[in-house]
Design a protein that fits this description.
287 residues, 9 helices, Helicase, Ruva Protein, domain 3, binds zinc ion
C-alpha cells in the first residue's frame, strides 16, 4: 500500500508534468474506481489549468483555475505514469494496459496515466466549500516534514494522551499521514519504546522533553530517506508488493527475530500488536 513517501514521490513525478498545464483531453476507461467518478468529471477538467500539485497526508491535492480542486488518493495499488505525448504517439504505442483507468493529456505535452489494479483509488473534484468540509482533510495535524511539525507541536499534541506513544503517532490529529511502517522505524531510530505512554515526551505543562526532539528528528529522517529512495527508483510497478529487496530498506519493520541494528546493542527485534497494527521494536535500546 502506498505510504507517505510513495505519495510524495508521486507528487514530485506529477508536478513538472501538470503544474501550470491545461487538461487538453481526459479519458475515463471505466465509470468508477472505489466509487463513481464525479458527474461530468472529464468535461469539468478539460480546459482548466492546474495551479499547483500539492500533498496533504496521503492525498494529492491539485487546485485548478476553475476554482475546483482535484483530490486524488492512490488507495491500495494506485500509481501514476508520465510519458511525453510524442512518445505516446510514436510509431508503435503500446496498447493500454488492463488497469490503466484514467488518462490526462496535458498541454505540457505529457500524458499522465492512472493505473490501479485493485481500484481502491479515489478521484474527486471539489468546490472550495466541499474542500473545507472534507471529512478526512479537515482536522489533520501538521505535515511531518513541515516546519510546523516540531518538538513543541508534538509535545503539545501528546501531553494529554494516555495511549501508547506508537498509537498516538498513528492518530492523524497528532501528525498527518505518518503511517505504521514509518512510526515503527522512527521510534527505533529515536530509541523510544512504542508502548511508553505518549504523554511522557512532554512535561506536565506540555513542553517538549528531549525525547520529543529526538522523535521529531527521527520521523523527519526516516521519511526524507524513504522519499529520496522512492524518487530514485526509476521503475515503479503498480503491482509491486513488498519484495525481499524492499524490506531490506527497513531498520526494524518486518524484521522479527533479527539482531537489532543499533550499534553496540545486543537486542533482538520483537513483534507485537498495538491497536491492531504490527509493531517491531528492540526492548534493549528502545525505552
Ligand atoms: Zn536495540
Amino acid at each position: 500500500m502506498p505510504e507517505l513517501p510513495e505519495v510524495e514521490a508521486t507528487r514530485q513525478l506529477l508536478e513538472p508534468a501538470m503544474r501550470g498545464a491545461r487538461f487538453d483531453r481526459v479519458l475515463l476507461r471505466r465509470a468508477d474506481l472505489r466509487r463513481a467518478f464525479p458527474p461530468d468529471f472529464a468535461a469539468r477538467l478539460t480546459g482548466t489549468t492546474v495551479d499547483a500539485v500539492t500533498r496533504r497526508a496521503k492525498y494529492l491535492v491539485l487546485p485548478l483555475s476553475s476554482g475546483e480542486t482535484l483530490v486524488m488518493h492512490l488507495g491500495m495499488s494506485g500509481d501514476f505514469g508520465v510519458q511525453s505525448r510524442e512518445r505516446a504517439a510514436s510509431a508503435a504505442p503500446p496498447p493500454p494496459r488492463a488497469h490503466d483507468h484514467v488518462v490526462f493529456e496535458m498541454s505540457s505535452g505529457c500524458v499522465v496515466t492512472f493505473t490501479d489494479p485493485r481500484r481502491f483509488g479515489v478521484m474527486d473534484l471539489l468546490t472550495r466549500e466541499a474542500l473545507s468540509a472534507h471529512e478526512t482533510l479537515v482536522g489533520l495535524g501538521p505535515e511531518p516534514l513541515s516546519p510546523e511539525f516540531d518538538a513543541a507541536a508534538l509535545a503539545r499534541a501528546c501531553a494529554r494522551r494516555r495511549v501508547p506513544l506508537k498509537v498516538a503517532l498513528l492518530d492523524q490529529r497528532v501528525v498527518a499521514g505518518l503511517g505504521n511502517i514509518y512510526a515503527v522505524e522512527a521510534l527505533h531510530l529515536a530509541g523510544l519504546s512504542p508502548s511508553r505512554r505518549a504523554s511522557t515526551i512532554a512535561t506536565p505543562t506540555g513542553k517538549p522533553r528531549p525525547t520529543a526532539m529526538r522523535l521529531v528528528a527521527a520521523i523527519k529522517k526516516v521519511l526524507t530517506t524513504a522519499i529520496a529512495r522512492q524518487s530514485n527508483t526509476t521503475y515503479r510497478s503498480a503491482f509491486a508488493e513488498a519484495t525481499a529487496d524492499e524490506s531490506a530498506r527497513f531498520r526494524v519493520y518486518d524484521r522479527e527475530g533479527e539482531a537489532c541494528p543499533t550499534r553496540g546493542c545486543a537486542g533482538v527485534i520483537r513483534r507485537s500488536v498495538q491497536g491492531g497494527r504490527s509493531t517491531f521494536a528492540c526492548r534493549i535500546c528502545q525505552r
